[in-house]
Amino acid sequence: MSYRRRCVCKALLVAGAFVLANYLLLSYSTEGTTGTRNYRKSTLAAIEESSKRQNQQAISVDKDAIDPKLASIMAMVNDANFTKTAESISWKFGENISKSYPPESDAASELSAIIDYAEPRAVLGITRKKPELLLGIPSISRKTHDYLLTTLEFLLHDLSPEFRNRTVFLVYIADENLEVSRQRAMSVYFMFKGEVESGLLKLISTPKELKPSWESKLFPNFGDTMTRVKWRSKQNLDMRFLLNHAIRHHDPEYFLMMEDDVTPVKNYADEILKFAKSAPTSEWSYCDFTSKVWGAGNLFHRDSTRHLALLIEMLWNAKPLDWLLWDLVRGKMCGYSGTEQQCKEKSNKLIRKYSRDLFEHRGKESSRSAVGLKN
């Protein structure tokens, strides 16, 4: 290669490195909406690409392979200086913060009478009262996957300012390990700082303790192993705690049950509210916005949200959550005479099914894997 060509190649490499360095510096320092959206899009694309390889690689390897911005976020989470940021937004682990809330009403106390939940050990964000719609998202880490950041990006993407002002995304980080919970919460905060500080997005951790110990109240039934009974009962407790917090501290008009590994269609929020308002709440118990994803896309109005919380409180250790959801309407419509088909036809009158699925399940690893269950 001639001397001139070598000089040209070196110049191009230097120029390319300079452009790349400036781009990374800009993406790290940008605070505006445009910059935030740009780095989120690149992060999301990298996470999606990484998820395709997660069956072969451990999550620690995947973290190093994804977008530099997310790597920076994870570095901040693990940095001791995060504590200053956490304290400024009232994220205090290991401390019951119920004293910061108003006293419970008699109805709220009744709701917690049997299992006796405490307040969450930590809260990240502010409490927005009486939103029109609250999306409840219980989330737990898997062995090799963590879908939460990607799911939140999908759900929050392109929401109109009007919708953002009357909605709450309530994320319940259900990991019992305090350190895992802290790291996941901080990663959400650093990626969605504006949403957290505005009250659009709020995170809560597990309660400090359960009285009495919930595992002592489990019993085998339906031919399930005790491992499966424990898994499904913990899932019920997580949903009940999420429902209780939503009812007592937010009191939404509508509660949308959501999972942490789904992708919504465009304008999903507008379609949900329009459909919900198209019939009086006295005519339905819940609306079903997906036929393929259990645990996501079920919408409850204010009264039926409370009915579901009470039902889970009574039968959390007896049946899986999807069966309790079916009991919610069967108990109102079915007597002790008639056939199963007649009962089903009556019960379906209280379930409003939307014309198409608004959510797609994209998770490849179930929370069951954490306890050794395959299906």
Provide tags for this entry:
globular, 10 strands, two-stranded antiparallel ribbon, single chain, 11% strand, 8-stranded mixed β-sheet, alpha/beta, 47% helix, 375 residues
Bin the helical content.
40-55%
Rounded average pLDDT: 74
**Annotation field: number of helices:** 15
Main-sheet strand order equals 1-4-3-2-5-8-7-9
| Structural class by helix and strand composition | alpha/beta
Q: Which residues form runs of ≥5 with pLDDT under 50? A: 13-34, 50-67, 89-117
| Major sheet characteristics | 8 strands, mixed
Distance between the termini: 61 Å
What is the percentage of strand-forming residues?
A: 5-15%
- Total E-strand runs: 10
- Give Rg in angstroms: 23 Å
Write the topology of this structure.
Blueprint: H1 3-29, H2 33-51, H3 59-65, H4 68-77, H5 82-88, H6 106-111, E1 123-124, E2 133-139, H7 148-156, H8 161-165, E3 167-173, H9 178-191, H10 193-198, E4 201-204, H11 226-249, E5 254-257, E6 262-264, H12 268-276, E7 286-288, E8 298-301, H13 302-315, H14 321-333, H15 340-347, E9 351-353, E10 359-361
Parallel strand pairs: 2-3, 2-5, 3-4, 7-9
Antiparallel strand pairs: 1-4, 5-8, 6-10, 7-8
Helix pairs in contact: 4-9, 11-13, 13-14, 14-15
Summarize the structure.
The protein has 15 helices and ten strands. With 375 residues, it is of the alpha/beta class.
Q: How would you describe this protein?
A:
The protein is an alpha/beta fold and 375 residues long. It has 15 helices and ten strands. It has an eight-stranded mixed beta sheet with strand order 1-4-3-2-5-8-7-9, with helices on both faces. Strands 6-10 form a two-stranded antiparallel ribbon. Helix 13 packs across helix 14 (321-333). The longest helix is centred in the N-terminal third of the chain and has 27 residues, at 3-29. The chain is globular and about 55 Å long. Residues 13-34, 50-67 and 89-117 have low confidence and may be disordered.
